[in-house]
């Protein structure tokens, strides 16, 4: 049934021997060889990850990238070496469940316009809750703030089977993202200027600009540790999230109202910076300032990439301002937004 839709599961690794040791067994156990091949793409690790894989998991195929180009370049370099109709981009801190692949394969087979799919992502450390990075499928507001079914900002919902459905979403999490290989290469992969964070939202947005569909399949479940590579309290993460969201808006928003939206987003960022000061997190305030300067530095390049895009989506968001909904109207659940 699935012979023509074989998946290449590609796990990006950088000095992650402990994560591979912990999570590879579940992927191997629940990923039948007739459905998939498993790869580890190594971003020039300096630990003994590769030696460990060769000794403990000899059936896994290894791709050795020449440098650590982050999530974006790491996957671009690796997937140029993988021949398969479907790619599964899986973080090294993901635990999968039995029969996690079959619902995804079936959905791709029956929905030819669906280019990208995300499964349900729950918290590995608290398996009754959704996990921050993706939860029950992602959306974005008109100012570029990302949120999910099951997660708005840091408010995480308990999994009560409310998102066991299949539905169209705006973006799929890079923690566990399935994509048709022809679409990945048609989009020229991830934007390597991003390094990490928000690159999957940009990829999904560009796919939607080409009239592809992004879907969520809640009958497939994985568990994600989250922050295993870059912790939530790391200013580097703040820098990448703020900078890359601005780049994404610049590249993908419709022309009408673009600069007004960017200005308002910069104002929101300034408020966030002040908030960090009152929370005694000045390094995060500095990270936002640094993100803005980096955004200005990349602005010309982003505008050039924008010209290469087809017509941009209009009215793509479920709510105009998730900040307003969350902080002012006190709406903490996705279902409250509908």
Key words describing this protein structure:
38% helix; alpha/beta; 10-stranded mixed β-sheet; Spore Coat Polysaccharide Biosynthesis Protein SpsA, Chain A; 338 residues; globular; 2 domains
Write the layout of secondary structure elements.
Elements: E1 7-13, H1 17-29, E2 36-43, H2 49-56, E3 61-65, H3 70-79, E4 86-90, E5 94-96, H4 102-110, E6 114-123, E7 126-130, E8 138-140, E9 146-148, E10 151-152, E11 155-156, E12 166-169, E13 176-180, H5 181-186, H6 199-209, E14 213-224, H7 235-252, H8 258-278, H9 282-307, H10 322-328
Parallel strand pairs: 1-2, 1-4, 2-3, 6-14
Antiparallel strand pairs: 4-13, 5-14, 6-7, 6-13, 8-9, 10-11, 12-14
Helix pairs in contact: 1-2, 6-7, 7-8, 7-9, 8-9
Overview of this structure, please?
With 338 residues, this protein is an alpha/beta fold. It folds into two domains: 3-224, Spore Coat Polysaccharide Biosynthesis Protein SpsA, Chain A (Alpha-Beta Complex); 235-337, no CATH class. Helix content is 38%, strand content 22%. The protein has ten helices and 14 strands. The chain has helices at 17-29, 49-56, 70-79, 102-110, 181-186, 199-209, 235-252, 258-278, 282-307, 322-328, and strands at residues 7-13, 36-43, 61-65, 86-90, 94-96, 114-123, 126-130, 138-140, 146-148, 151-152, 155-156, 166-169, 176-180, 213-224. The strands form three sheets. Strands 1, 2, 3, 4, 5, 6, 7, 12, 13 and 14 form a ten-stranded mixed β-sheet that branches. Strands 8-9 form a two-stranded antiparallel sheet. It has a two-stranded antiparallel sheet with strand order 10-11. Strand 10 and strand 11 form a beta hairpin. Helix 1 runs parallel beside helix 2 (49-56), helix 7 (235-252) runs antiparallel to helix 8 and helix 7 (235-252) runs parallel beside helix 9. The protein is globular. The protein starts with 6 loop residues before the first strand and ends in a 10-residue tail after the last helix.
């Amino acid at each position: 049934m699935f012979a023509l839709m074989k998946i290449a599961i590609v796990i990006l690794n950088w000095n992650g021997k402990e994560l591979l040791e912990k999570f590879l067994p579940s992927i191997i156990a629940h990923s039948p060889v007739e459905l998939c091949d498993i790869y580890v793409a190594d971003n020039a690790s300096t630990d003994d990850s590769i030696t460990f894989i060769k000794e403990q998991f000899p059936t896994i195929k290894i791709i050795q990238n020449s440098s650590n180009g982050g999530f974006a370049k790491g996957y671009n370099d690796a997937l140029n070496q993988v021949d398969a109709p479907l790619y599964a981009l899986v973080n090294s801190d993901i635990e999968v469940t039995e029969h996690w692949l079959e619902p995804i394969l079936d959905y791709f087979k029956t929905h030819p316009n669906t280019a990208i799919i995300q499964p349900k992502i729950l918290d590995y450390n608290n398996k009754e809750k959704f996990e921050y990075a993706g939860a029950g499928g992602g959306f974005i507001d008109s100012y570029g703030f990302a949120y999910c079914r099951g997660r708005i900002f840091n408010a995480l919902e308990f999994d009560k089977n409310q998102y066991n459905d299949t539905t169209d979403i705006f973006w799929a999490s890079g923690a566990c993202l399935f994509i048709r290989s022809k679409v990945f290469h048609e989009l020229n992969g991830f934007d390597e200027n991003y390094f990490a964070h928000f690159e999957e939202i940009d990829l999904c947005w560009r796919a939607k600009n080409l009239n592809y569909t992004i879907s969520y399949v809640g009958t497939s479940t994985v568990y994600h540790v989250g922050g295993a590579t870059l912790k939530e309290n790391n200013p580097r993460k703040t820098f990448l999230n703020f900078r890359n969201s601005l780049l994404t808006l610049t590249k993908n928003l419709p022309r009408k109202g673009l600069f007004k939206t960017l200005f308002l987003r910069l104002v929101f960022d300034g408020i966030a910076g002040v908030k960090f000061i009152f929370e005694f997190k000045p390094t995060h305030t500095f990270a936002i300032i640094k993100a803005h300067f980096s955004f200005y530095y990349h602005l010309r390049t982003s505008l050039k990439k924008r010209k290469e895009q087809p017509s941009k989506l209009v009215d793509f968001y479920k709510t105009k301002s998730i900040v307003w909904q969350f902080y002012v109207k006190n709406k903490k659940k996705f279902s409250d937004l509908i």
